[in-house]
From TrEMBL:
Descriptive protein name: 2-keto-4-pentenoate hydratase
Native species: Bradyrhizobium jicamae
The Fumarylacetoacetase-like C-terminal domain, residue ranges: 79-250
Record-linked InterPro entries: Fumarylacetoacetase-like_C (IPR011234), Fumarylacetoacetase_C_sf (IPR036663), Hydratase-Decarb/MhpD_sf (IPR050772)
Gene3D superfamilies: Fumarylacetoacetase-like, C-terminal domain
Sorted UniProt keywords: Lyase
Domain of life: Bacteria
Length: 251
């Protein structure tokens, strides 16, 4: 059967618009490879509008990273409150986020680590809310969830700092509190270990099908705390040593 990403695109866009959640993707549009999943991701992204941010992660320090584009409607800058009606499920993660102040357009030769970092303007704390357009979170093939924007729900940004080069991400203590209770407290905590590797991969490979990394975009680099599911009304507080604390309420 010929793979038809457009059918999955229509279903995912309809689920976003109507909140009629999916059991699975239609026959013939179920991804069987990372390339298939990204083909669906990209078509959905192009239909939603300009990419303003990226999420990128990796299961281990050495495995191939994965990514998803993020759009204006799910990007929040230091708000006190995020509306719970946006989400089917509310999974919170504390993440390190980088903002880019210069373009990294698609080109033939790969960017060096130094070239990528020279385009970074600041680091900030972030809270990603994971969600799904499927009826059951994690209930489908992982590639289907990758196609569904990598389970992205929203990204909340805290206060940026420009002196970020003095911070060593995999040595930073991080604490995630829910309603005043410590839900996770670790050092580093990111399964990718080094987020800089993820930024370089995104610049050299992951962002190419949607035009590369652009000035003004932010990149969140994966959970440092795992995913913690909360109910509407919960207050989440993320604290990275060296960065300002970020607190949000989802209700």
């Amino acid at each position: 059967m010929t793979f038809e990403p457009s059918r999955a695109t229509v279903e995912l866009l309809d689920a976003r618009r109507t909140r009629r959640l999916l059991e699975r993707l239609p026959e013939g549009s179920q991804p069987t490879s990372e390339a298939d999943a990204y083909a669906i991701q990209d078509l959905v992204a192009q239909a939603i509008g300009p990419v303003v941010a990226w999420k990128v992660g990796s299961a281990t320090a050495d495995s191939e990273p994965f990514r998803a584009p993020i759009h204006r409607e799910t990007l929040f800058v230091d708000p006190a409150r995020v509306p719970a009606k946006m989400f089917h499920v509310i999974g919170v993660e504390a993440e390190l986020v980088y903002t880019f102040e210069r373009d990294l357009p698609v080109k033939g030769a790969p960017y060096s680590t130094a070239a990528v970092l020279d385009c970074v303007g600041a680091m900030m704390p972030g809270i990603e809310i994971v969600d799904t357009r499927f009826k059951v979170y994690g209930g489908c093939d992982p590639l289907a969830h990758r196609a569904d924007q990598g389970n992205h729900g929203a990204l909340i940004l805290g206060a940026p700092i420009r002196s970020w080069r003095s911070l060593v991400p995999n040595s930073l203590p991080v604490r995630l509190e829910i309603d005043g209770r410590v839900a996770c407290e670790v050092v580093g905590g990111n399964s990718a270990v080094d987020p800089v590797r993820l930024l370089v991969w995104l610049a050299n490979e992951g962002s190419h099908s949607l035009g590369g990394i652009r000035a003004g975009q932010v990149v969140t680099t994966g959970s440092c705390t795992g995913t913690i599911f909360v109910n509407s009304g919960a207050v989440t507080r993320a604290t990275f040593e060296g960065l300002e604390t970020l607190e949000i309420k989802v209700d």
